[in-house]
Amino acid sequence: MNKTTAALSALVLAGALAGTAFAQSDIDPNIARAIKARQSQMTLYAFNLGVLGGMAKGEMEYDADAASKAAGNLAALSSLDQSRLWPQGSDNFEVGTEVTEALPKIWDADSDIGAKGKALADAAAAMNGVAGNGLDALRGAMGPLGKACGDCHKAYRQPDS
Fold first, then answer.
1. Rounded to whole angstroms, how far apart are CA atoms 121 and 105?
2. Could you give the 3-state DSSP secondary structure of residue 100?
3. What is the pLDDT of residues 112-149, one digit of tens each?
4. pTM of the predicted model, to two decimals?
5. Which of 12, 26, 28, 139 is 20 to 30 A from 52 in CA distance terms?
């Protein structure tokens, strides 16, 4: 199983498990599936970033193989087509903040969400290129990767209260 197939399989499984939470809501089922799919993708991002971040911070022992796998997963996840994950009406204003933290401004005409997504894919690809080359290389790629994640979250995710 290649990395992209593994990432897709994990997304399908996570989405299927999470989809039961929407089963009893009034949300359009297509919107609910899209929200759960993107939330599942974010969960997989966080899981793999946790491995890399743990190593970078010294909370986990550096393991070149584990770092390479986590970085490969991030690169694969960030390169998936997300066009069907973000339908109009799937923001926190339309479906509620208890369902999604996605702010409506994602869909504004002047939104730079595409550029931010590309920045994440570029940072993930850079991490994938160096994660197995030692702790210093991993740490060097961690900053741009974290910045790419944070830039999008700051602009387009409901802040924690």
1. 21
2. coil
3. 999 999 999 999 999 999 999 999 999 999 999 999 99
4. 0.83
5. 12
